[in-house]
Structure formats: structure tokens, C-alpha cells
Model the fold of this input.
Amino acid sequence: MYIMPLQTILLVALGVATFFNLLGNLKEIKTITFASKPLLVPLIIAFYASAATAVDPLIVLALAFGCAGDVFLLWRRANPKAVVLGLLSFMVGHVFYIASFAVDTGFFSAAQWWFALLALPYVAAAVALYKLLEKDLGKMKGAATAYMGVLLAMSAFALSRLFVASPASALVTWLGSASFIVSDAVLAVEYFKLKREILHHAVVMATYVGAQLLIVVGLLV
Done:
């Protein structure tokens, strides 16, 4: 992947926006957080669109729904419905990621028996996280379980690209999906179990921005 000046500018802008977002979270400066967060994913979309030889609309849609989820979660403390809307937005985004990865691997055109082997560690992770949070999920149990299943499936499909993409491409995209799992697991523990935010949501945002960027970079290399 050759980085052009425009892409360099976009990456620098993303770094600056991420810095201010983390600063706003750590210092609990709402104005900075609200101003910077909606910029993060659009900058990643712009970077992807400027660098990709052929833009995959499924990836753009996945990122766009992630951006919508970001905006909804800005109001997570004030309105519980914002969490549900954010969850649904991210879930739809993961479905678009799954669709893109599945097209890459030919998953829809032939039986992929090996996929069951890739899924086993994710099933174990899902069970462990569910057991940790089960008593705290309340009315969100169904929605949270569905989201967790879709998120882990997205990561499994990212891993399945090992069979069709270069090792670097598959590994970087999978690392992005794994960072997404870390980000959402921390968010779930914060919101449902601890009832407080670790480092004022900065851990979630750092791993989240890294996740979206790594997924995209993996598709470009």
C-alpha cells in the first residue's frame, strides 16, 4: 500500500481527532468529546476511499453504521435508548463486515466446513463473557447476546480471510476485529457490571479507533 499525500493528511487528521477525543474523555470535557467523536470514522472512510483500488460499498456501509453508533453513544449517560440504538447500529455494521469478508472467501458459493473450527474459540469466548455479565444484563440480555454473537462472527469471518488473502492483509484485519472485541468487552463491563467508565471511556475509544483503522488497513495491504 503506497500512501499518497492526501492519505497522509487524512491519517494525521485522524490522529489529531483521536488525541482530542481521548483528551476530552480523560478530562471529561464534553464539548471536546462531542466535537471530535463524529469525525473519527468519516476520516477512516475518506482514507479508505482514497487508498482503495476498488472501494467495497459493504465496507463503507459497515463504517457508516459504526459512525452512527458513535453518535448515538454520545448520549449513553443521558438516555438508555441511545445505548440500544448504538448497539443496533454497530450490529448492522458488523453484518456488512461479515458480508464483505464472506464474499472474499467465497463463503456463500461453497460449503466451508473449516469455518466451524475457526468458530470454536469464539464460542468459548462468548460463553465466558456471557457468564461474567449474565446477572447484570437485565432487559438487555437478548440484545446484548445477539450483538456479541454478531461481533464474534465478524471476527471469525475476518480470520477466515487467511485462506484467500495475503498473510499480512488477513492478520491486520483480524487484529482490527480482535481490537473491536476488546473495545466492546470493556464497554460491556463498564456499562453493565461496574456502572462506571474505566479511564473515562478512553480505553474503549482507543481500542475502537484502532479496530476500525486496522480492519481498513488490512483490506488495503
In short: The CA atoms of residues 62 and 93 lie 4 Å apart.
